[in-house]
């Protein structure tokens, strides 16, 4: 079972959505606890996105996340309308917590 960690910006994006959509989005994200690899890998030439996955809610909103299998954590990096330009790897990496090396 994986743990879910929301980035501050993704959480703010969910809070700005209509209540019903926000609740549906959180319910869908909660499924990642049991099935962290359910989202489709993001197909991009951006080298910063090799581990990122996404799933679509109501055919209009995208949830972008990264699953760290070693740590057992799913990082929710972005929530956005599908008409928006997908985030770049550089933008998403800034949303991950710093490595604790």
Oligomeric state of the chains in view: single chain
Percent range of helical residues: 10-25%
Distance between the termini: 24 Å
**Mean pLDDT score, rounded?**
86
CATH class: Alpha Beta
The count of domains is 1
Please give the number of β-strands: 5
Class by SSE composition = alpha+beta
Mind telling me the CATH superfamily name? RelE-like
Order of helices and strands: EHHEEEEH
CATH hierarchy: architecture: 2-Layer Sandwich
Radius of gyration: 13 Å
Give the overall shape: globular
Unreliable residue runs: none
Largest sheet: 5 strands, mixed
Measured by DSSP, the beta-strand proportion falls in 25-35%
CATH topology heading: YaeB-like fold
Number of helices: 3
Brief write-up:
This protein is an alpha+beta fold. The chain has three helices and five strands. The protein starts with a strand and ends in an 8-residue tail after the last helix.
Key features?
alpha+beta; globular; 25% helix
General description of the model:
- There is one protein chain.
- The chain is of the alpha+beta class and 101 residues long.
- The protein has one domain (3-93): RelE-like (YaeB-like fold).
- It contains three helices and five strands, in the order E-H-H-E-E-E-E-H.
- A five-stranded mixed beta sheet has the order 1-5-4-3-2.
- The longest helix has 12 residues, at 19-30.
- The two termini are 24 Å apart.
Give a topology summary.
Blueprint lengths: L2 E4 L1 H8 L3 H12 L9 E2 L10 E6 L3 E8 L4 E9 L7 H5 L8
Parallel strand pairs: 1-5
Antiparallel strand pairs: 2-3, 3-4, 4-5
């Amino acid at each position: 079972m994986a743990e879910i960690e929301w980035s501050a910006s993704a959480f703010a994006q969910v809070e700005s959505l209509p209540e019903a959509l926000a609740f549906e989005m959180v319910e869908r994200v909660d499924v990642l606890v049991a099935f962290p690899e359910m989202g489709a890998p993001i197909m991009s030439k951006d080298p910063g996105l090799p581990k990122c996955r996404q799933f679509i809610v109501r055919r209009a909103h995208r949830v972008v996340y990264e699953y760290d299998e070693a740590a057992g954590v799913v990082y929710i990096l972005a929530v956005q309308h599908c008409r928006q330009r997908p985030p770049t790897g550089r933008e998403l990496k800034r949303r991950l917590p710093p490595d604790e090396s």
